[in-house]
Each structure stands twice: as structure tokens, then as C-alpha cells.
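Appendix B. Raw example, untouched.
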Amino acid sequence: MSERELQRIEVLSRVSERRMTSATAAGLLGVSARQVQRLMKTFQSEGAPALCHKARGRPSNNRILDGVRDFALKLIREHYGDFGPTLAREKLLERHQLAVSKETLRKWMTEAGIWTLRRERKRRLHQPRGRRDCLGEMVQIDGSHHWWFEERGPKCALLVFIDDATGRLLHLRFAGSENTFDYFHAAKSYLQAWGKPLAFYSDKHGIFRTTHGSKLDRGSGLTQFGRALYELNIDIICANSPQAKEQASRCT
């Protein structure tokens, strides 16, 4: 029996022994006084077992038929193996007229090894990029918007050029924003002071990278800044993750 049913038997026993009134019992059980009287008749005529829930031991009316789970998992493996429970449920209902709740499907997919809970997924590890060997071989370029002059001036961007091999700050320039014009001036000043590197290493800012152009033609689809570097035979390498640009971000 459940705890609620045991409490009900105890209270009705006190009422039957005249140690408690029906009104008090109704308050303890959270029912009306008339309901207490009906329960007392059942308790006195059929005993304590009659107070148990009548549906105990019977299959649920909302149970899923045998074979539905296996059929749903089969469809998911064949067509929706890379889907999450929410989208897989929508496709099962839309294309196969199979209605299953999202949480039930999540449980099935987890037990079958198709879906892994977010907290159990392994974090993706990024292989650290090795630094270049020589000074000036590759230079990291980046910009940072900040109140560099506190309240004495407007918010601006600091353009920074960092040697990849040694981590030295080679050139700094304040600009109103990260724009092509100021990057041209900063790159010119750097080249005049330090010479030409083999490559500049940057993030995927629109100044350095464009999604247009042919993969077969290195010169097509370049930005203005990228076209200038192409004419100087300087490569522009765009980082694929924030971790790869950690050094430049830390310095700025």
C-alpha cells in the first residue's frame, strides 16, 4: 500500500473506534465529510484492502503497445540517426504517423545508445597549434574595442601585430573601428619597420575573409585587404576557433 492509503486506514480506524470525529478526519484526509462517511462504509464492510486503488496491478490505459518501441527505434536508425529526440518525434509523426511523446522517445533513444545526454557528452578537445620557429615568419593580427582612454576619449579599437614565434608586440595602432583603411595603414607601418612576413594570422573578420570566390583560384573572392596581401605574396590564415587566437586575444 502507498503511504496515503496507510494514512487513510489509520484515520478511519480512529473514526471507527470513536476516537476521532468525521469532520476532523475529513480535514486530515483532505476530503469532504460525506466522502469520509462513504469510505467508512467500505472500510467496515470490506475491510482495509478495499481502500486500495482499484487499478493497482492492471496495465495502464495509456500504455504503448508492444512493438511500437522497436519499430520507432528501427525508423530512427534507418532515417534519423543524427536527429535529436525533438526533431525525430516530429518526423515520426509527420512521415510515419507514429505519435510518441518527446520524453518517451528521449528515454528510448538513450537506452538504445542512439542519443547521449548533454551532460554525458565528451568535450571536444582541440589540438594546440605549434608556434612558428623564426621571428617574423608569421604575425598574428587582431583588434579589440575598448575604452582605452577611459573617460578622456571615445571608445576605439586597438589594432595589434604579435609575432607568433616569440609573442612579442611588434606594432600597435589605435583606430576608430576595425576597418580596412586603418588595417592598411597599420600593415604598411609594420612592413616598413619589420619587413614582409610569410603569413598573417587572423580571425574570420570580414576584412580578412570572404565566403565568395572559387576554391581553384587563389586570387578570386578576396577582400581588399586580402588582395593587397596577395600582390605582396603574403598569405592570410584565418583561425578556425577562438582557442587558436587565444594569444592575440590575451594580449589585447
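End of appendix B.
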